[in-house]
Amino acid sequence: MGERIFTNFLIVYVYVFSGFQFANTHREIQTDRPIVGIVAQSIPRSWKQYVGAGSSYIVASYVKFLEASGARVVPIRTDLNEEKIKKLFQSINGAIFPGGRVGLFQSGYANTSRIIFDLAMKTFDNGGYFPIMGMCLGHQFLATVVNGPGEIRIRTDAYNFRAPLNLKKDFRESKLFRNIPDYLVKPFNTTFTAHFHKYSLPFKLFQENKKLKDFYKVLTTNFDRKGTQFVSTLEARKYPFYSTQWHPEKCAFEWGIKKKTPHDLTAIKLGQYMSNFFVNEARFSSHKFSSEKEVRGALIYNYQPVYTGKRQGFAYEQLYAF
């Protein structure tokens, strides 16, 4: 009897331990020099007078968001063909799909992000690791690309809006919020996250749409000014994909007087938590450039940001134009 119990225990132990090991084979530090790509997008015509030459841009606060946690940044330009995108994908350790004003179906931003998304899934399925974080438009894109053709967003009143994050009860079971400090969790019911979107992903959609529900786990929701509930934080159940409808990068780096971006210490620490988390995810990727010369040629240091914040009412302090 004792031998049978011991044997059963050993079988269970080996099964659980091996499963745990398999689940964590992806999550081993591969580099202490992570490089993250940010997807660029087309410059609106109305911005040309402020930005100057160039056809695409990246907002500088996304760059600073990553650099503050120990990553270097490479722009993923909209003029790259698929072959060049694939080559760059194999060189960087993660990607940010930022907020913006372009189409989710037909745009350079959408086409580039779709290629990276598909490559990231294949990489993970083959034992590798490539994290993605979407913010605002990027959050909406990550849901749209899983759902397939068709508009799934709704109009909401949440532009230039501070809102609390309504955490789901099982948030500690997520990768994103598993280790978030209690001192950051306690003030989640106060208005310290920045929203700048006119469209949102309805929470009801993720309750009824099996495809989205099976792929993503909803971590937080919000209500707009009119009481419409929308999804504000997502995490892929299998893949290292994370997204926020809110802007963790703005609190420390965007200073528009007319913008309701919170700048209190708690909001900034939450942004730092998100940055630290994602950059650490990038350290699990083994991708790398073929040479240091190639790294230096690709980094965003090769470009100078434009100070757009001096233009009254402009949305961002600085932009990189390409």
Describe the secondary structure blueprint for this structure:
Elements: H1 2-24, E1 35-39, E2 41-42, H2 48-51, E3 56-59, H3 60-67, E4 72-76, H4 82-89, E5 95-97, H5 108-125, E6 132-135, H6 137-147, E7 154-163, E8 166-167, H7 182-185, E9 193-200, H8 203-208, H9 210-215, E10 216-223, E11 229-236, E12 241-244, H10 265-282, H11 292-298, E13 306-307, E14 318-321
Parallel strand pairs: 1-4, 1-5, 5-6, 6-12
Antiparallel strand pairs: 2-3, 3-14, 7-9, 8-10, 10-11, 11-12, 13-14
Helix pairs in contact: 4-5
- CATH architecture descriptor text: 3-Layer(aba) Sandwich
Helix content: 25-40%
Number of domains: 1
Shape assignment: globular
Share of residues in strands: 15-25%
Q: Can you give me a brief rundown of this structure?
A:
With 322 residues, this protein is of the alpha/beta class. The chain has helices at 2-24, 48-51, 60-67, 82-89, 108-125, 137-147, 182-185, 203-208, 210-215, 265-282, 292-298, and strands at residues 35-39, 41-42, 56-59, 72-76, 95-97, 132-135, 154-163, 166-167, 193-200, 216-223, 229-236, 241-244, 306-307, 318-321.
